[in-house]
Amino acid sequence: HYDAAIRIEPGIRLAFYVRGNARFGLGQFHLAIRDYDKALRLDPKFVLGYLIRGLALNELDQHMQAVENYDQAINLSPDFTHAFIGRALAHAALGNDAEAQQDTDRTVELG
Is 54 helix (H, G, I), strand (E, B) or coil? Predict the structure, then answer.
């Protein structure tokens, strides 16, 4: 259904985002990232796009790229707790313990 919606109206970021989420749920992380890329090209301020693309990148062990996506989400929405949690996990996977702890502390502050 998402493919049909995208063929009819390829300029709707939400269609790419939702299809990406479906692919993410199926474990098709590379395809999901392609959809998130398209959604973000259509709307570079789409905070959820950066968050979920970061999650997909973490699933592929591309933790540095995940950190960059979480950074973008945080730049757009400085109190976005989920972005700090994702970035903490990516930093931990990279062995950046101090950064992971800072992000964890920030999530506690945000509640």
Answer: helix
